[in-house]
Amino acid sequence: MPSNDVRILAQAAVPTAAAGAIAAVVSGLVAGGKGAIGAVVGTVIVIAFMGIGLYVLQRTARSLPQLFQMMGLMLYAAQILLLFIFMAAFKNTTLFNPRAFAVTLVVATIAWIAAQTRAHMKAKILYVEPDSASSSSSSKGEKPEKSGHSS
């Protein structure tokens, strides 16, 4: 993963983990140990799903840039659907408090999306590679060829 991708991943995962830690403390106080376990499980699931999704999206952007927007929309829809499936699958569990789990899933997801949005807005991502655009014409000492219609 290039350094910019790792930076965006860290800038999204750290606030999400912090929100999950706060949720675990609050859930532990409100619902006991099972509430804290539910909050931790919810946070881990969100970080894993969203991190894998970010990785897949970045690979798609490099290999198939024309599919980037469609892939991003499909990916977020699939992640939200999978999170709802997890909430439904664990609603009657006795391993942890399902309400703390569900609330933490929602809070951590919102924290991830907000942090990732902020990271992308602050990132200085080049739209054009400056070396490839300038080296092709200046290294040969020629004028760039016109590619449009000549009439």
Textual characterization of the structure:
- This protein has helices at residues 3-31, 33-63, 68-89, 98-122, 130-138.
- It has 151 residues and is an all-alpha fold.
- It has one domain.
- Helix 1 packs antiparallel against helix 4 and helix 2 runs antiparallel to helix 3.
- The longest helix is centred in the N-terminal third of the chain and has 31 residues, at 33-63.
- It is elongated.
- The termini are far apart.
- The relative contact order is 0.16.
- The model has no long low-confidence stretch (mean pLDDT 81).
- Residues 140-151 have a biased composition (Basic and acidic residues).
- This is ATP synthase I.
Which helices and strands appear, and what pairs or packs with what?
Elements: H1 3-31, H2 33-63, H3 68-89, H4 98-122, H5 130-138
Helix pairs in contact: 1-2, 1-4, 2-3, 2-4
SSE order, one letter for each helix or strand: HHHHH
CA distance, first residue to last residue: 46 Å
Number of strands: 0
Low-confidence stretches: none
The outline comes out as elongated
Quaternary class: single chain
Main β sheet profile: none
Protein name: ATP synthase I
Region (Disordered): 130-151
Transmembrane segments: 12-30, 36-57, 69-90, 96-115
Keywords: Membrane, Transmembrane, Transmembrane helix
